[in-house]
UniProtKB/TrEMBL annotation:
A motif (Nudix box) lies at residues 44-65. One of its GO terms (biological process) is nucleoside phosphate metabolic process. Its cofactor is a divalent metal cation; Mn(2+). It comes from the Bacteria. This is RNA pyrophosphohydrolase. It comes from Pelagovum pacificum. It is an enzyme of class 3 (hydrolase). Residues 10-154 form the Nudix hydrolase domain. The keyword Hydrolase applies. Accelerates the degradation of transcripts by removing pyrophosphate from the 5'-end of triphosphorylated RNA, leading to a more labile monophosphorylated state that can stimulate subsequent ribonuclease cleavage. Its EC number is 3.6.1.-. One of its GO terms (molecular function) is bis(5'-adenosyl)-pentaphosphatase activity. InterPro entries: Nudix_hydrolase, NUDIX_hydrolase-like_dom_sf, NUDIX_hydrolase_dom, RppH. PANTHER family: NUDIX HYDROLASE 26, CHLOROPLASTIC (PTHR11839:SF22), UDP/ADP-SUGAR PYROPHOSPHATASE (PTHR11839).
Amino acid sequence: MTDQPVDESLYRPCVGVVLANRNGEVFVGQRIESDQPAWQMPQGGIDDGETALQAGLRELWEETGVTADLVRIEAETEGWLIYDFPDDIAKTRWKGRFKGQRQKWLLARFTGEDDAVNISTAHPEFSEWKWVTPLQALEAIVPFKRDVYERMLREFDGRI
């Protein structure tokens, strides 16, 4: 993470969703392709012509089965939060085109019941999921994303 100007073309535009329940807990999912602990919140690329909101709602549905009618968007990060991939990931993902990701984050209040969450989607990304406190989420996130999560959670502080 840097406060210096960056070449945005080196960073994949992405959106993340903090899905928060009525108890102030947040959704985290264990990445399906990882045999190590690799928890994260729903996130994914912003397609051409999509807004961060549109992409966030699409990614939320694709990864959790939660539909737009079961959430209330309460906030969006002011700017882009940027992180670099570890070298092994940067070389292999997206054919090495990106150095990392730049993310907008949405705070989405889940208004449904837990049985509306379904990670067995058409293209599953998570092997399991759970509700955790924001601090527990921060501690569970893979280290190279931790700074972005910390900045995002600080920006949403008091609203989750």
